[in-house]
Amino acid sequence: MVNEINFDTVIAAIEDEIGCDCEPYGGMINEEALRIPVDHLQSVIRVLRDQFGCYHLSTITAQERENQPGEVELIYHFWQGKGISLMISVPLESPQVESILSLISGADFYEREVAELYGVTFTGREETPPLLLPDNWDLGPPFIRREETDE
Amino acid sequence: MIRKLIEKTYRWAQKNSLWVIHYNTGGCNGCDIEILDLLTPRYDIERLGIIAESSPRHADVLLCTGPVTLQAKDGLWQIYAQMPSPKWVVAVGSCSTTGAVFSGSDTVLGGVDHILPVDIYIPGCPVRPEGIIEGLVQLRERIARGE
Amino acid sequence: MQFIKGLFFLLIFPGLSFQVVCGLAFEWIDRKLLARFQRRVGPPWYQPLADLIKLFSKEDIMPEGAYDLVETLLPLISLSAVLTAGLYIPIAGFTPFSFEGDLIVIQFLMSVPTLAYYLAGIASVGIYSLLGGGRSLLQFFSYEVPLLITISGPAVMAGSWSIAEISRSQLDQGPFIVFQPLGFILAVVGLIGKLKRDPLDIPSASSEVVGGSLTEFTGAKLGFWHLVMNIQAVVGIFLLANLYLGWSNITSPLPAIGIFVLECLAVVVVLSATSAVFARLRIDQLAGIGWKILVPLSLLQLGFVILMGV
Amino acid sequence: MNKITIPIGPHHPLLKEPLSMKIDIAGERVLGASLRLGYVHRGIEKLALERTYVQDVHLIERICGICSHVHTTTFCLAVEALLGIEVPPRAQYIRALMCELERVHSHLLWLGILAKHVGLETVFMHTWHDRELALDIMEGVSGGRVSHAANQIGGVRFDLSEEQEAMIRENVEKLKTQVGGVLDVIENEPALRARTQGVAPVSVELIKDYCVVGPVARASGVDIDLRRDDPWPPYDQLDFKVITLPDGDAWARTLIRALETRESLRLCETIMHKMPDGPVTVRAPRKVPEGEVVTRSEAPRGEVVYYLRSNGSDKPARLKVRTPTLAVLSLLPEQLSAIHVADIPVVLAGIDLCIACADR
Lengths: 151, 147, 310, 360
Hints:
In chain C, 74% of the residues lie in helices and 0% in strands. The longest helix of chain C is centred in the middle third of the chain and has 32 residues, at 127-158.
């Protein structure tokens, strides 16, 4: 049986790990979401995995919110009995995120998909050929192309 | 006179022995499992002399399923080029006929007739095994008539 | 006169047309039986004929870089080898050409298509043909040795290397299958390996090497290859029927033919059943079984025959 | 030994759907493999943003032909959670019934294809002949053999009459006996065991590192099953056994799917037994209030994750679909290294690839 985690103890553990406080984001149904600064991503995932045994990364969702223009938001969905998500946001012009491939090798396809569809570059991993988009695709990341989709 | 007789026997042989190869160019594999269903006991197309082949060199009929995605486009063309003539193309399912529910996406070209000359269109999403058999039977009659 | 008789033997009776008809009939019976095992209806009677004619009507494509002269000659060479092998086999006791030692000649002629299959794999320069050709040779060694040893069992019992002599000697000693049941089973396994049929169709397994050596063949050449496979099967079945089931030459020609046809059908049923039931082995498993089980068993069988005979 | 690379190209008899793999081998040993997806990428997540929720149900159903019902169920659960409406219990039970029938038909389909690749044509024919019964039930109930259009936002599109329920019970009974036949073929068919036993074993650490889900994870002893761990309504009232096997090789992956088929059939019976009466659907407004939701459910191949964000209009603002095959595919290069060339079909078929799911 998968042991349930109490979300408050998770927040407490993360906060004393990375020093600054991070407020939980209540808007997501069925999931406990937590907004964390970009550069602490790796250490937070290490905390989740070592202290709480939460190893299962379901997927990485990338999106743009209307009320946060000029920013791409990445949500790392973990699962341990119930869903836990880590939310980070990066500037739209030069989206840079540190790859978590060293921690979770299962994240490879999710990172490559986000890189192709949203143009987010993941540092710390070798260059890989396109995963989903066709080889001769020259129209740029489909979700970012604002001008084509409106015509 | 002899020429006509040979032509007639060739046409009879081609009608009764259609070797089929199947290629999915981006569909949801609903039609693919229905094509595989044709081999199973309930529908059994071997009684019509139709066998599923694995190499394009041995095949006469190309069964395409799915809307043609940009990535699968040249693979489709390669297979069609490898098949020895006389060869026929059958578009199975609404996706390969017109691109159906996926038309309008940036990575989808639409129906198979954007690339290959199609002989028989079989609509349906997913198409029923009886529909595919009906399409193949009409193809046989068309071969017998010599188109 | 002798020339016309020879021509008749060569082209009509035990020669070309008889074997082609038998080959097509075998393919139909085999596919029909296989279908019935799988609860299916199976193809109509004229299906093998339609397949053959259709293949001849197809365009002939040659992958560039392949040696096309070699590729056209290979099927013809193996076809002629198999047809000549069919001449020496007595059919229901009747055999125009029979000489001492024709059992060895038949074994050699029956192995020519396997080597031609390997060369065809090399000649048509595809990756799958190379793989398929290589596997057919690997498989050749693991079934050919036990087959040769078991085939010599009946020869030792009959005291002669001519098939006609062997099948005639079964009149007084009774059919050899009674004395050598293990030999019959090993011969069937060897035949399945030689024909590359289902349990041992590793060289032409569609899920691993697409079409094996024949991936690049189209049209008439492919038709010839199918013909070679069928006639090789027919010759193999006639061989087994004569060596192990000797009832066919007991009485006058008419019932002998009936019994001979029944024997061949029995062997065909055995072949189809094994192809419907068993799964395909890996090439190294086959080599392991070949040398660890088949060869010792056939040696055991031969030793038993020699001891019993003396 | 010189190293050559075999391209398992977009078209190969081993693959029902296009996937290109470069496998480099030395002699008969496989060294490594690299994957290239994208042949079936139709950009469904982008298409979904241009259509209303009602139209999206039909689009989502065409992500994958084999597990179409699980996709629409998860999507409808997401929208219903945003709308805050309660689906009547009878609709939930019908949804669970269709999910389990789809698992039966998907596993039987896969068992047949594995037997076909191992050379057992007869088992392929018999398994697929039995599978027709499951398709008959789904067709009798919803009118569609493969994609059934069973779900709509707020409930299910059809109700079960008396004869339909009798037909379901009778066919499920017949299926149980026939699946029993398939099971003992798999358990004591020597050639099948010889080809799959000890092939490409996967350790528990590898499963956890690659976040693998579904039967492949359960075959290696990792005990996760969303129907029990994170259930949506009817599954919390149903009791069923989650099967795990210790050794995690190709044979365990075969056996686990056969056992799961039998378990699903037993589950179908309890569902039919506990099926309450009442309405089958409830009216759902067209515009969805603003909000985000993540729903998960257990598809035949593992955990399906849907993230949906709405902005108050009748079109979704963002939809993210994660299908189980994507998680299992990342394990493939790892599994393929250090196996025999002749084992490639067994390993490839062992993962039950659904490329249409993976590419979206």
